[in-house]
Amino acid sequence: MVNALFLPSMRFSFWSVGKNHEAYVKAGVEEFTYRISKYYKVDWTIIPQPKNAGMMSEMDLKKKEGETILQWLEKDDYLVALDERGKQLSSEGLASFIQARANESTKRIVFLIGGAFGIDDAVIKRANFKWSLSQLVFPHQLVRLILSEQVYRACTILKNEKYHHK
Amino acid sequence: MVNALFLPSMRFSFWSVGKNHEAYVKAGVEEFTYRISKYYKVDWTIIPQPKNAGMMSEMDLKKKEGETILQWLEKDDYLVALDERGKQLSSEGLASFIQARANESTKRIVFLIGGAFGIDDAVIKRANFKWSLSQLVFPHQLVRLILSEQVYRACTILKNEKYHHK
Question: pTM for the whole thing?
Answer without folding.
Answer: 0.93
